Amino acid sequence: MTEQELEIIRQRHAESSFGQLLGFEPVEAAPGRVVLRLPFSARLLQSLGRVHGGALFSLADHASGWAAYSMLGQGERCATLEMKINYIAAVHDEDCLAVAQVVHRGRTSIVVESDIKTNDGRLVAKTLATFIVLKES
User: Fold this and answer.
1) CATH fold of the domain at 3-135
2) What is residue 130's three-state secondary structure?
């Protein structure tokens, strides 16, 4: 990924109202790989004092989408077809990182795997997502 392409991802991230709402921060970007941080906020807690699973899912979805986007060619765009998550451990008061990696780029689909970890490297969730590749008209 060129510096110009990385800058495009940074700009698009800055335009994401939902990403801004949850506080996602870009950490790294390379072709087929994106790392986003979700800083801890008490506003993300559910009633049992854990970070809500929906916030973790959204973090992984956002990172996976940007990883897929980084693999698109001229005149292509993508959209999520499906995504699943396995929750492994609870998060109470820690930042989380989503490390999203493209595992397959086909003609019509992109498959992305994401690990969500705490700052100390503890794995808390794992996702697998499929994106459809669309041609712009």
Assistant:
1) Thiol Ester Dehydrase; Chain A (3.10.129)
2) strand
Q: What is the pLDDT of residue 106?
A: 97
Distance CA 61, CA 117 (A): 14
For 109, other C-beta atoms within 10 Å of its C-beta total: 14
Q: Is 107 helix (H, G, I), strand (E, B) or coil?
A: coil
**What is the DSSP annotation of 58-85?**
HHHHHHHHHHHHTT--TTEEEEEEEEEE
* pLDDT, mean of residues 86-100: 97
Q: CB count, 10 Å around CB of 56?
A: 22
pTM for this entry: 0.91
Scanning 15-126, the segments in alpha helix (DSSP H) are 17-22, 53-69
